[in-house]
């Protein structure tokens, strides 16, 4: 069995230099990268600026995760940079419907994110319009934070509401937790510290792919 789950290496970098170092380490291995942008308004802590992140040449497709209270101020730069996907948090301010229209009219994908300490129900009215959902499985702001099992219930709920909806789980992902996330309905996994700690990236990737297969088999068994 070969799962259709996508691995996205997550980059949570405080500076442009740190971001460039991470990009170089994973370049050519993954078709997508997940770029975290935080300005301390929605979560604790800051990353490099969006402008600095977009200035770095990246061959992979870019998914930009706006962990910010006012995502609208960043949309023009993202559209001009032609990133492939934008993640806007349901907890953020602003007109969500207008943001969805602006992003999609520029032919970019838009996912809605849900913080680990939030309930998932506020995202439900937008599911008919967005391209996917991102469930944070850790308290955001620092890679290596402990996985929060309650996030699996959110994945299960979204998968129940919209079985074909792409669901990404971000944070605390390693083989055991990734297997459970896929079992509940996840089809995309953003992975940070597990891949950073792997002596060889390909070894970590293989371990995750094996976990995805087990999770998919368990999901299929549950649905029988």
Descriptive report:
This protein has a single domain (6-223), classed as TIM Barrel, CATH 3.20.20.70. Helices cover 39% and strands 20% of the residues. It has helices at residues 16-26, 50-55, 72-81, 96-105, 150-161, 175-184, 193-197, 201-223; strands at residues 6-11, 32-38, 61-67, 85-89, 109-114, 132-136, 167-170, 188-191. It has an 8-stranded parallel beta barrel with strand order 1-2-3-4-5-6-7-8, surrounded by 4 helices. Helix 6 (175-184) runs parallel beside helix 8 (201-223). It is globular. The protein starts with 5 loop residues before the first strand and ends with a helix. The mean pLDDT is 95.
Give descriptors for this structure.
alpha/beta, TIM Barrel, 224 residues, 8 helices
**Strand line-up across the major sheet:** 1-2-3-4-5-6-7-8
Order of helix and strand elements from N to C terminus = EHEHEHEHEEHEHEHH
Counted by DSSP, the helix tally is: 8
CATH domain class = Alpha Beta
Instruction: Give the name of the CATH superfamily.
Output: Aldolase class I
Spans of at least 5 consecutive residues whose pLDDT stays below 50 are none
Mean pLDDT: 95
CATH fold descriptor: TIM Barrel
* CATH architecture descriptor text: Alpha-Beta Barrel
- Helix amount: 25-40%
Main structural class: alpha/beta
Biggest sheet statistics: 8 strands, parallel, barrel
The portion of residues forming beta strands comes to 15-25%
- Morphology: globular
Summed up, the domain count is: 1
């Amino acid at each position: 069995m070969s799962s259709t789950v996508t691995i996205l290496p997550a980059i949570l970098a405080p500076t442009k230099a740190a971001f460039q170092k991470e990009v170089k380490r994973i370049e050519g291995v993954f078709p997508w990268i997940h770029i975290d942008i935080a300005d301390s308004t929605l979560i604790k802590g800051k990353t490099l600026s969006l402008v600095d992140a977009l200035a770095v040449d990246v061959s992979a497709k870019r998914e930009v995760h706006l962990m910010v209270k006012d995502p609208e101020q960043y949309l023009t730069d993202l559209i001009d940079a032609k990133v492939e996907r934008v993640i806007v948090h349901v907890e953020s301010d602003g007109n969500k419907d207008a943001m969805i229209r602006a992003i999609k009219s520029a032919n970019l994908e838009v996912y809605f994110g849900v913080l680990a300490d939030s309930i998932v129900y506020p995202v439900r009215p937008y599911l008919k319009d967005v391209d996917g959902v991102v469930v944070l499985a850790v308290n955001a702001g620092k890679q290596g934070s402990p996985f929060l099992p309650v996030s699996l219930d959110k994945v299960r709920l979204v998968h129940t509401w919209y079985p074909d909806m792409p669901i990404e789980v971000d944070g605390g992902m390693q083989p055991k937790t990734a297997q459970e996330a896929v079992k509940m309905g996840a089809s995309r996994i953003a992975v940070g510290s597990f891949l950073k700690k792997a002596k060889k990236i390909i070894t970590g990737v293989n371990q995750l792919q094996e976990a995805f297969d087990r999770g998919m088999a368990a999901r299929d068994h549950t649905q029988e």
